Inverse folding.
């Protein structure tokens, strides 16, 4: 048994009534996304914090050299760790979810859903080229892992974590190596410029939530089709929604993944509309990610140049 | 050596803070007193402290369990657990950067204790006293270094973490101390003295951080 | 009234207390355990020390602190959500994730075996904390003890409910010149119930005004007094310009 949010009937009715009138509690329109803030921690490579309104997620990427899996000698290893702690909300419990002891509570399901989504969106869509992580076939490869830290919960963890993982992967640099036969030399980051990972494309998740203003029963009969569609739900909107759909797209407008859950029946044409709308959001988010990365590399280059100049000056004097 | 701390930035928990010094950084959150979520944890006369430490990368291991049990022994002395019978207090610590090699836990524990202290004040949970932690290492030549860097720690002969209670802005009594390595009795006493001194100097800034938080909480009133 | 910032472990100066006076320990103040030789007070959390009736024979010491989680105290006015029923009691939640408190089905005016309110899970009620005992769940009541009538307590229908921090809720309820409320009065007509457990229920004539009011009250916690009027204006104009 886990703890749950207590939401009164008054609130539920009010939020639905407001949505019917195209009003959301934070003043957004139904399909507006909250402001995305991506910040890269200056101290290291591949540590990114993303906030989507009040939802906050951090992602830390790390790499080490290990032995590859027996059955996949030419591939590196890529793991994503999505353990949700009660830090983001007492709603989530520790030690449940995918790695936990098979509890059946709603919270556990929620956590499993989030980790599977990220897994499918990033790992299974081959966003990271794992063949490029192979160093010596069958004996040495890079194991890259992305650890997600969920800090504050205000709905829509999936979209925020996907942005965090992708930005962190794009930003991460692994130490340069040199291979001579079976011997591998790993260079310190001070000796040689570390190298970026090979990222094949940047998938981004967009989540929609569905509501039926006329109740569930009308939906099954399906005569009116005036379901409400929301993008980027906040905590209370997410708790009240009757169905969700997450679309993962990249900037080439390719759908990597689409998951519709929650049971509310939706017209196929509406899903097409969602996809088109999502592709617009994705290209905007994609630009934002690259903008942040560019800013960051500018900052980092300055530090390096300064260091070189300093050495040069010291030599002069 | 300086440190950075911030408090009260998470919305869904009752108290939160970060603490950062010499490349070690943690975030902690406190929520409570909450309803017990698992019956087996219920204690009839006091609160159950649910402590979870999450590593920066990878999944929790025995290393985190060790830190959790050390932290529990410190916190059960300072939190007034008898105030909250049959409730639980949830304390979560997310490591952001360990700032020391896997072989050591001393710097992490120092940052964790200090961060949890600030989070507890932010949450309003009853405390018996104020407290802070600091760590020292003894270099091979016998010098005492307070709050060492990762390198200084690795070249040291021994290291100690100590937690002191604070009464009227001065280090008062020793709550917890844990040392590893070789040292003489005289050295240990010297280390404890410099820890007490360091805590007293840290307290000033921590007090300011907490005071600013309280001011921020009452901004509509001023 | 003094407002000094204190932390646990600080000794509260009680030397000004007149001899023979009975000191009352208010919220967040406890007898210091570090100093057993003499009576000393110490705060249990960080906050602002307040002393009431300092000169009299019954001074009260308490520490103001702005938390999120409510601890039931007798005679507090609270807003609760019915989360269940057992026997003749309802289980009521005062904060999400906190242990629920009890509300007797007979703690309503004129309630009898045959005539008692039928509350559903999810209903909102405005009530008074009737009893708090250390080893038992706290109990609420919807009867005004002075008149025996409802006195404004009972089921809250319609409207919207949201959370604020505890000290802010106390300020709204007890401070007659809470500026935010007088600003809102200028903008619209509304009905409000304030629970010191940090919940506020508000009802206006239409949805948009309710959203604007709730956002204004909620966000007001981070506004300074002098910028309040302008920000309230902003909050309302954003929603009006919406479509």
């Amino acid at each position: 048994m886990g703890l749950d949010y207590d939401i009164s009937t008054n609130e539920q009715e009010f939020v639905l009534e407001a949505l019917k009138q195209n009003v959301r509690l934070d003043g957004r329109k139904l399909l507006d996304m909250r402001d995305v803030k991506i910040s890269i921690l200056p101290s290291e490579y591949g540590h990114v914090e993303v906030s989507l309104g009040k939802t906050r997620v951090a992602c830390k990427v790390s790499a080490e050299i290990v032995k590859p899996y027996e059955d996949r000698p030419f591939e590196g290893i890529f793991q994503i760790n999505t353990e949700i702690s009660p830090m983001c909300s007492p709603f989530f419990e520790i030690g449940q979810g995918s790695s936990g002891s098979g509890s059946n509570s709603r919270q556990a399901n929620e956590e499993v859903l989030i980790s599977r989504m990220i897994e499918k969106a990033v790992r299974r869509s081959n966003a990271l080229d794992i063949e490029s992580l192979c160093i010596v076939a069958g004996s040495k490869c890079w194991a890259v892992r992305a650890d997600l830290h969920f800090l504050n919960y205000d709905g829509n963890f999936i979209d925020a974590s996907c942005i965090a993982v992708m930005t962190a992967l794009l930003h991460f640099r692994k130490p340069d190596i040199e291979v001579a036969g079976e011997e591998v030399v790993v260079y310190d980051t001070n000796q040689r410029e570390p190298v970026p990972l090979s990222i094949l494309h940047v998938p981004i998740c967009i989540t929609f939530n569905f509501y039926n203003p006329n109740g569930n029963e009308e939906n099954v009969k399906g005569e009116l089709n005036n379901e409400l569609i929301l993008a980027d739900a906040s905590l209370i909107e997410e708790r009240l929604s009757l169905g969700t759909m997450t679309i993962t797209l990249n900037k080439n407008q390719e759908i990597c993944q689409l998951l519709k859950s929650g049971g509310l029946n939706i017209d196929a044409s509406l899903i097409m509309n969602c996809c088109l709308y999502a592709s617009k959001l994705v290209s905007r988010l994609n630009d934002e990610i690259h903008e942040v990365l560019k800013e960051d590399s500018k900052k980092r280059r300055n530090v390096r140049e300064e260091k070189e100049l300093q050495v040069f000056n010291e030599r002069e004097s | 050596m300086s440190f950075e701390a911030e408090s009260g930035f998470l919305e869904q928990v009752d108290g939160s803070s970060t603490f950062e010094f010499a490349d070690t950084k943690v975030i902690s959150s406190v929520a409570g007193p909450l309803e017990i979520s698992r019956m087996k944890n219920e204690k009839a006369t006091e609160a159950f402290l649910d402590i979870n430490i999450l590593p920066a990368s990878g999944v929790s291991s025995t290393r985190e369990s060790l830190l959790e049990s050390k932290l529990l022994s410190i916190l059960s002395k300072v939190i007034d657990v008898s105030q909250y019978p049959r409730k639980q207090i949830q304390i979560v610590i997310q490591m952001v950067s360990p700032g020391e090699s896997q072989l050591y836990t001393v710097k992490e524990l120092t940052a964790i204790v200090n961060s949890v202290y600030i989070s507890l004040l932010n949450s309003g949970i009853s405390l018996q006293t104020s407290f802070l932690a600091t760590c020292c290492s003894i270099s091979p030549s016998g010098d005492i270094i307070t709050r060492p860097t990762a390198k200084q720690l690795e070249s040291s002969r021994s290291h100690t973490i100590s937690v002191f209670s604070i009464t009227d802005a001065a280090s008062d009594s020793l709550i917890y101390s844990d040392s590893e390595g070789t040292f003489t009795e005289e050295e240990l006493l010297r280390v404890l003295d410099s820890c007490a001194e360091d805590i007293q100097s840290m307290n000033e800034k921590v007090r300011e951080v907490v005071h600013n938080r309280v001011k921020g909480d009452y901004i509509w009133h001023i | 009234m003094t407002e000094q910032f204190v932390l646990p472990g600080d000794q509260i100066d009680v030397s000004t207390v007149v001899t023979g006076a009975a000191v009352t320990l208010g919220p967040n103040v406890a007898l210091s355990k570090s100093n057993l030789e003499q009576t000393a007070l110490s705060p249990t959390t960080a906050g602002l020390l307040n002393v009431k009736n300092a000169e009299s024979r019954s001074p009260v010491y308490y520490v103001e602190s702005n938390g999120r989680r409510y601890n039931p105290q007798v005679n507090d006015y609270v807003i609760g959500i019915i989360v269940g029923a057992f026997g003749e009691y309802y289980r009521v939640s005062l904060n999400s994730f906190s242990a629920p408190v009890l509300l007797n089905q007979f703690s309503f005016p004129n309630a009898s075996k045959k005539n008692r309110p039928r509350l559903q899970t999810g209903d909102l009620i405005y009530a008074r904390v009737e009893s708090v005992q250390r080893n038992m769940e706290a109990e609420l009541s919807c009867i005004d003890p002075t008149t025996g009538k409802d006195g404004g307590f009972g089921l809250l229908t319609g409207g919207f409910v949201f959370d604020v921090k505890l000290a802010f809720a106390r300020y709204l309820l007890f401070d007659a010149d809470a500026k935010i409320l007088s600003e809102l009065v200028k903008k619209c007509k509304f009905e409000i119930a304030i629970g010191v457990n940090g919940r506020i229920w508000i009802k206006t004539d239409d949805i948009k005004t309710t959203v604007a009011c709730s956002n204004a009250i909620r966000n007001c916690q981070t506004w300074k007094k002098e910028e309040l009027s302008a920000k309230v204006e902003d909050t309302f104009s954003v929603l009006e310009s919406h479509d």
User: Anything to note?
Assistant: The CA atoms of residues 18 and 27 of chain B lie 4 Å apart. The first strand of chain B starts at residue 3 and ends at 7. The mean pLDDT of chain B is 93. Strands of chain B lie at 3-7, 15-21, 24-35, 48-54, 87-97, 130-138, 144-146, 158-167, 170-181.
